[in-house]
């Protein structure tokens, strides 16, 4: 087994270096990592001298890299070599960015050079630059096809303009055949039955057609009323495809183990892939086969003899190189092309790229390495921004040649046909090389952007790229870090046993140790066996082919349930059946935010009347100027009186907000601040009703223009909007579409509003595959007709920000876009809203949010360095991606914001506490019923009086102060990465006893209904685990109390809320979670009748340890002071916990 | 009265040559390099700083500082701030490069035009210069289309009738708000005119021959290779019916035979001594001159001058020389 600890890797490097020295002048294949730093600055354009060390820091001396892979004694250089150019640009960029850490190179080939002067040093010839940055095989292929496309799409993030309808049935035809093929093959290999394979094929095709709702909208029946050609052809291909499967796999199925959709990753090549199918031979000598199915051949490699094109060649070569570097010696990568309704498999040896270049696959052909390394290294350099940085002049200069010759040395080996037809840069008219260029082109995109727009783009782009960078390095980190260390970081769980495997779900458990982890439900994970594999002859690491990707469904104290893409392998005889689970982050998590940002940049420029010169910011669309903070929005016009039916059920501030929305002109922005419980969602429902009504009176709009789109930050919020509309404006419901397919977490009312469900194709119907092709096609046509009718008449769409480019919305623009939870969305995410406004942003934008509640969730990191130009667009030092557009714009234009001031949740004392500390005393209960609500009123609904005991007899605010309680000290941070893992046993016990005492005082018949209205909140996941255990132990009914983090509680409310602050220590550390003071606002404002705070006043009111804590500390001081004031009025009670005991409460009572 | 003695004049033979002081120059360039480096670094981070001379105490240092700042700004095309004024110190370079680029386009020299436009784009700060660069690129594409798209030979009927770049020029011109209307109108008409000429060449044999002659001429003067020029001349001769008898050993017929021999060899015809001799004697320039002469004779007009109808005319603003009073 290869040991990949730092020490072992370093030993290999040192041995390789010694070997190099024994054969001076002879290039050698090394394949070892080294860390390098430039030994001289500025870096020479002809030679780079580097100071090299091993991974463990042992010095290796100076080494050099020369242009064209030259070394002393070299007989023939490679004039098109890319290695020097890429390395030069990377080092230069790091120098300009002042990055001090050494750069990692995976040195593939080097030579011990002896110079005429007698000097000797290693000369590096071929290497992978920064292999920790993972690039997928399909991206490598994209680079090979067009480096400039990578620049525009993968670096800049340019998307297509989805205001234009883009989906066509022909696009889905290939995908449908692909899906059918996969199912048919899998079924045939399992059963050996061709008829069942044909049925499975139909199921796959059916599922793909019914998945793409927008395509269903585009289906047009033939003159005879039959299914269109694309649909018919995809079903009709069944015979050909199943025949092909039978002839290829009839005898060979048992000789190999088959894996579907497996992720494989090489830490030494910086490459990953996910093949459709992997066949691992049972005979160790037979080659491992990887099959990748492609559905488009317009821009593949051209066969020199037949002239036909075939895609995917470089991707297949990359997969082969990747798997060989992991340890599989013999690998064949097959590309299967879905074209003309058949699947054509092509082994790598017959692929046009191999034929054209006469690549020798039987040995280590260095041209293969060069091709793969070139595409991977150049992708890294270009997509990560190291090639151009944010130099606006250089960015434009880079686009002058589509092959990026400055960095792509081996241009003669790149593909000949760029994929212009499918490239967003061509469609948006920013690529100077688009062959079908016409219309108003956008040359000098970066150079001529107004400086405010450019600075805005740079500020957010850099941060999103930093997040993407961290995500791309995750796999490397998993492979190179010992599992125990990963578990300490909280991102891995080891030594898990397989408890159950049912269909797609697997349950893993570890009875002997608790699962303390930062992995949580919905996280993407890799499940990897921990026994040695026969072919690899070692324990596979995460991502090395045998890992199965999945999603965490449930996480308990000792077990977790994961929904997997494929079954996990079972341990062979004699091996301990242990597995590890590693948290994985999606590479493209930030992709749509980058797209929103790039779209804002390009759309703003495209709407300006002038071209070819530096634009003034005043020439941008009015709304873009406002977003940039340069043009104050109009003051909200609230004087307009509302019709009685519009104002019904709204309070004064809600009525003002609604009037202001209706008075908005195209190109205007309105901010609505909604503190907790102020009825934001109800207001949005009222807005929706009013805007739809207005649209009915203005039928002159084009059919692609719709009245209103509501975008939210989460699915939960989107569902709540639908529910609120159903409740308050049911007359709008027939015209409402909830974008997307049904999800498990959707209420039935919401699910019935999705387009598939409204078209009669709900999840259940989609799963029921029609018995034959004709029935399936007829059903598709019927669904298509119904979907079209629903879609044509839809006036309101509700979606999440992430699905703003969903199929249903393509081709549509909206008069008004409302963004709910705008304070929780990052600014680039919020820009999605602008993508749905008409060209030139001639629509209205309403942001509803509250910057005093939780800010956007981001994984990074420190903000980039600040520069002065940012000040004028309202970005302040200390701002980052966590600063939402709502917060920035509210800060800049407070006069453009309407604040909702009447809240329907908290009673008067709780409201007074929250309002005083977070809202300048502006927040008040909406009416006396809310203000006077007490525990007694709530219990009266059950016909009960408050029970005796501390909680039952408490005033509305109860503070259990642990300052002088020596037992109530926290555990300290558990996870190395951050302090998410704190816990406080005493606080957990106090909370459990407090609630147990309360529940015991109530009759058993109401326990279930009572506990579902109690919430326990702590910012720490570890504390929450502890709380759940203690609650369950204290009273069986308390098992059902919702215990969660603040972040997960946002948007929720309970009659009784208990907040466990946890931090209590000698150092007076409050941690980063509490330093974000808005978390406290959310925690306190969830309570309706009774708020209990358990914590150490001394810790939270101590002087700040770092400046970032100052505001949080101040707010804590104000909270405790306010509680004291309330206590003086009898509306709160402060209890020291030192001597607190709960008589009569025992474990398991 | 005391006479002030005249300084003794140094004999001219002893005067040193004016050579650059290497050490001082290197010092100056190092200082400029340092500024340029700081500027590049800031730009790489996303800023676009203005160059300002640093504060110094001595007048001599102020002069040097001014020079350093000006040089650094000029090197990267950055703006230079003197007192409260923002200056674009390389705008004269831009003007010169633009003139050069447009002149290159007028003589179908696409590569030189591209180089000049590229250089101009690096420094241009005046909006009218920036827009002239944008127009220059569109015209570059137009002239490129004019030369590279063979009239009447595209399989697509629609494409046979128009040059795609004309639409680009037309769409761009309406957005070039910093250029005078007269200039925009001029180039709009010029684009239409060139397209009309090109379309005419698609429909009319004689016009096609003029276009082919232009193509051969460009191939010759831009060094596109002897075979390219020969190929166009052969096609032209065939279309113009210039296939004359080869009774004159140095006449057109012989020159054409030599040209054909070149392609016969390239196409893999059986090699013979005669074919090789003919091919080696082929001269594109001789053939070009002979074809021009033959066409001039046949058409009754200077065939070479006829190619100028495909040349881009350049806009010249009407100005009144200083001191001259306009009529009336």
Description:
The complex is a heterodimer of chains A (1149) and B (328). By secondary structure, chain A is an alpha/beta fold. Among the domains of chain A are: 1-129, OB fold (Dihydrolipoamide Acetyltransferase, E2P) (Beta Barrel); 481-585, Elongation Factor Tu (Ef-tu), domain 3 (Beta Barrel); 628-899, Rossmann fold (3-Layer(aba) Sandwich), CATH 3.40.50.300; 905-1136, P-loop containing nucleotide triphosphate hydrolases (Rossmann fold, 3-Layer(aba) Sandwich), CATH 3.40.50. Chain A has 40 helices and 34 strands. In chain A, the strands form seven sheets. A seven-stranded parallel β-sheet of chain A has the order 22-23-21-24-25-20-26, with helices on both faces. In chain A, strands 6, 7, 8, 9, 12 and 13 form a six-stranded mixed β-sheet that branches. In chain A, strands 14-15-18-17-16-19 form a six-stranded antiparallel beta barrel. In chain A, a hairpin with a 4-residue loop joins β7 and β8. In chain A, α21 packs parallel to α22 (680-696). Chain A is globular and about 95 Å long. The mean pLDDT of chain A is 89. Chain B has 328 residues and is an all-alpha fold. Chain B has three domains: 46-89, no CATH class; 92-203, no CATH class; 206-310, no CATH class. Chain B contains 14 helices and two strands; from the N terminus they run ααββαααααααααααα. In chain B, β1 and β2 (85-87) form a beta hairpin. In chain B, α5 (127-148) packs antiparallel against α7, α9 (205-221) packs antiparallel against α13 (284-299) and α10 (226-240) packs parallel to α13 (284-299). The N and C termini of chain B lie far apart (64 Å). Chain A binds chain B through residues 42, 93, 96-97, 389-394, 396-397, 400, 432, 437-441, 443-444, 447-448, 451, 454-455, 458-459, 462, 609-614, 864-865, 867, 869, and chain B through 37, 40-48, 76-77, 118, 121-122, 125, 127-128, 130-131, 133-135, 137, 164, 167-168, 171-172, 175-178.
């Amino acid at each position: 087994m290869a040991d990949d600890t730092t020490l072992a890797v370093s030993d290999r490097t040192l041995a390789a270096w010694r070997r190099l020295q024994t054969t001076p002048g002879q290039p050698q294949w090394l394949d070892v990592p080294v860390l390098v730093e430039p030994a001289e600055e500025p870096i020479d354009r002809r030679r780079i001298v580097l100071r090299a060390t091993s991974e463990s820091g042992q010095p290796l001396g100076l080494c050099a890299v020369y242009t064209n892979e030259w070394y002393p004694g070299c007989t023939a250089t490679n004039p098109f070599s890319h290695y020097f150019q890429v390395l030069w640009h990377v080092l230069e960029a790091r120098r300009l960015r002042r990055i001090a850490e050494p750069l990692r190179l995976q040195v593939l080939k080097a030579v011990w050079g002896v110079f005429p002067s007698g000097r000797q040093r290693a000369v590096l010839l071929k290497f992978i630059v920064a292999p920790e940055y993972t690039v997928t095989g399909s991206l490598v292929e994209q680079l090979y096809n067009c480096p400039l496309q990578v620049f525009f799409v993968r670096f800049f993030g340019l998307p297509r303009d989805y205001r234009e309808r883009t989906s066509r049935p022909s696009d889905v035809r290939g995908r449908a055949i692909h899906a059918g093929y996969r199912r048919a093959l899998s079924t045939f290999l399992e059963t050996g039955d061709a008829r069942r394979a044909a049925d499975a094929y139909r199921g796959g095709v059916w599922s793909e057609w019914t998945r793409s709702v927008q395509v269903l909208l585009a289906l047009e029946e033939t003159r005879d009323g039959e299914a269109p050609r694309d649909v018919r052809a995809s079903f009709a291909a069944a015979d050909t495809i199943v025949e092909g499967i039978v002839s290829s796999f009839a005898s060979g199925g048992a000789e190999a183990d088959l894996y579907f959709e497996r992720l494989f990753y090489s830490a030494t090549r910086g490459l990953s892939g996910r093949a459709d199918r992997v066949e691992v031979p049972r005979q160790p000598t037979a080659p491992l086969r990887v099959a990748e199915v492609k559905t488009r051949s317009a821009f593949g490699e051209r066969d020199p003899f037949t002239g036909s094109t075939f895609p995917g060649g470089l991707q297949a070569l990359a997969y082969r190189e990747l798997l060989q570097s992991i340890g599989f010696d013999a690998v064949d990568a097959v590309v299967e092309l879905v074209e003309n309704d058949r699947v054509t498999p092509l082994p790598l040896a017959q692929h046009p790229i191999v034929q054209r270049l006469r690549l020798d696959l039987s040995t280590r052909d260095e041209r293969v390495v060069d091709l793969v390394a070139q595409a991977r290294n150049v992708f890294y350099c270009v997509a990560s921004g190291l090639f151009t940085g944010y130099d606006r002049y250089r960015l434009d200069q880079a686009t002058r040649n589509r092959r990026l010759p400055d960095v792509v040395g081996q241009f003669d080996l790149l593909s000949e046909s760029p994929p212009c037809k499918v490239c967003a840069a061509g469609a948006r008219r920013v690529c100077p090389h688009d062959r079908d260029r016409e219309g108003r082109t956008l040359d000098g995109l970066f150079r001529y952007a107004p400086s405010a727009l450019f600075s805005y783009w740079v500020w957010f782009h850099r941060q999103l790229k930093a997040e993407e960078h961290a995500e791309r390095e995750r796999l490397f980190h998993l492979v190179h870090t010992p599992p125990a260390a990963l578990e300490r970081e909280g991102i891995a769980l080891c030594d898990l046993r397989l408890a159950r495997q049912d269909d797609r779900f697997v349950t893993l458990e570890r009875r002997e140790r608790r699962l303390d982890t930062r992995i949580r439900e919905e996280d993407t994970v890799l499940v990897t066996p921990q026994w040695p594999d026969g072919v690899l002859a070692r324990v596979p690491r995460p991502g090395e082919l045998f890992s199965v990707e999945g999603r965490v469904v449930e996480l308990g104290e000792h077990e977790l349930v994961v929904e997997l893409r494929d079954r996990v392998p079972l341990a062979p005889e004699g091996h301990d059946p242990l597995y590890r689970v590693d948290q994985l982050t999606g590479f493209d998590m930030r992709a749509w935010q980058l797209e929103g940002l790039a779209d804002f940049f390009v759309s703003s420029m495209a709407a300006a009347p002038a071209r070819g010169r530096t634009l003034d910011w005043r020439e941008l669309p009015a709304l873009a100027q406002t977003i940039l903070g340069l043009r104050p929005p109009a003051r909200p016009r609230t004087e307009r009186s509302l019709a009685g039916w519009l104002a019904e059920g709204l309070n004064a501030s809600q009525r003002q907000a609604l009037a202001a929305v209706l008075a908005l002109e195209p190109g205007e922005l309105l901010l609505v601040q909604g503190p907790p419980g102020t009825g934001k969602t109800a207001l949005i429902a009222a807005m929706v009703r009013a805007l739809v009504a207005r649209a009915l009176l203005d039928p002159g709009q084009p059919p692609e223009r719709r009245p209103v789109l509501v975008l939210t930050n989460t699915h939960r919020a989107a569902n709540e909007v639908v529910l609120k509309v159903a409740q308050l404006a049911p007359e709008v419901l027939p015209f409402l579409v909830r974008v997307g397919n049904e999800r498990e977490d959707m209420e039935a009312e919401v699910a019935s509003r999705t387009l598939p469900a409204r078209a009669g194709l709900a999840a259940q119907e989609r799963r029921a595959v029609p018995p034959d092709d004709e029935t399936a096609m007829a059903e598709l046509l019927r669904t298509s007709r119904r979907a079209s009718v629903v879609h044509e008449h839809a006036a309101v769409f509700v979606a999440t920000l992430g699905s703003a480019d969903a199929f249903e919305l393509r081709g549509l623009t909206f008069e008004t876009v409302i963004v709910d939870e705008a304070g929780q969305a990052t600014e680039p995410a919020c820009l999605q809203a602008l993508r749905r406004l008409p060209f030139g942003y001639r629509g209205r934008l309403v942001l509803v949010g509250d910057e005093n509640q939780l800010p956007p969730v981001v994984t990074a990191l420190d903000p980039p360095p600040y520069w002065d130009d940012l000040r004028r667009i309202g970005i302040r030092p200390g701002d980052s991606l966590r600063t939402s557009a709502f917060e920035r714009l509210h800060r800049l234009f407070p006069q453009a914001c309407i604040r909702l001031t009447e809240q329907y949740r908290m009673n008067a004392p709780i409201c007074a506490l929250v309002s005083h500390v977070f809202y300048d005393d502006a927040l008040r209960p909406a009416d006396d019923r809310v203000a006077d609500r007490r525990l007694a009123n709530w219990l009266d609904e059950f016909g009960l009086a408050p029970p005796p005991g501390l909680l039952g007899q408490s005033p509305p605010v109860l503070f259990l102060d642990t300052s002088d309680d020596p037992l109530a000290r926290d555990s300290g941070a558990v996870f190395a990465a951050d302090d998410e893992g704190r816990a406080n046993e005493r606080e957990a016990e106090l909370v459990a006893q407090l609630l147990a005492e309360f529940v015991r005082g109530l009759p058993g018949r109401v326990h279930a209904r009572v506990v579902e209205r109690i919430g326990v909140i702590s910012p720490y996941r570890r504390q929450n685990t502890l709380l759940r255990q203690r609650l369950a132990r204290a009273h069986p009914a308390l098992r059902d109390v919702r215990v969660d983090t603040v972040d997960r509680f946002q948007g929720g409310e309970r009659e009784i809320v208990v907040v466990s602050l946890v931090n209590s220590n000698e150092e007076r550390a409050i941690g980063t979670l509490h330093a974000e003071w808005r978390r406290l606002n959310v925690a306190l404002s969830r309570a309706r009748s009774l708020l209990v705070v358990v914590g150490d006043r001394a810790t939270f009111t101590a002087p700040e340890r770092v400046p970032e804590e100052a505001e949080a500390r101040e707010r804590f001081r104000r909270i405790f002071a306010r509680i004291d004031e309330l206590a003086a009025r009898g509306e709160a009670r402060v209890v020291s916990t030192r001597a607190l005991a709960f008589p009569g409460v025992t474990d398991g009572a | 009265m005391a006479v002030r003695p005249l300084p003794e004049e140094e004999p001219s033979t002893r005067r040193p040559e004016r050579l650059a002081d290497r050490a001082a120059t290197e010092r100056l360039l190092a200082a400029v390099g340092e500024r340029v480096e700081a500027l590049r670094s800031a730009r790489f981070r996303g800023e676009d700083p203005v160059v300002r001379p640093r504060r110094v105490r001595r007048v001599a240092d102020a002069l040097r500082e001014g020079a350093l700042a000006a040089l650094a700004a000029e090197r990267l095309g950055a703006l230079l701030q003197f007192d409260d004024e923002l200056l674009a110190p390389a705008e004269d370079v831009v003007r010169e490069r633009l003139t050069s680029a447009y002149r290159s386009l007028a003589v179908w020299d696409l590569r030189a035009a591209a180089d000049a436009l590229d250089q101009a784009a690096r420094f241009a700060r005046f909006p009218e210069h920036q827009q002239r660069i944008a127009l220059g690129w569109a015209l570059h594409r137009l002239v490129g289309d004019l030369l590279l798209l063979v009239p009447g030979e595209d399989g697509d009927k629609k494409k046979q009738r128009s040059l795609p770049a004309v639409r680009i020029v037309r769409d761009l011109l309406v957005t070039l708000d910093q250029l005078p209307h007269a200039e925009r109108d001029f180039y709009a008409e010029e684009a239409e005119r060139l397209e009309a000429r090109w379309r005419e060449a698609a429909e009319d044999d004689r016009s096609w021959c003029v276009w082919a002659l232009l193509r051969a001429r460009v191939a010759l003067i831009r060094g596109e290779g002897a075979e390219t020029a020969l190929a166009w001349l052969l096609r032209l001769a065939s279309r113009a019916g210039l296939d004359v008898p080869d009774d004159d050993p140095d006449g057109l017929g012989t020159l054409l035979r030599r040209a054909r021999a070149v392609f016969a060899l390239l196409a893999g015809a059986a090699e013979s001594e005669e074919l090789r001799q003919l091919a080696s004697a082929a001269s594109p320039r001789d053939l070009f001159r002979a074809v021009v002469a033959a066409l001039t004779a046949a058409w009754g007009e200077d065939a070479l001058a006829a190619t100028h109808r495909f040349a881009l005319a350049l806009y010249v603003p009407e100005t009144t020389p200083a001191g001259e009073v306009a009529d009336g």
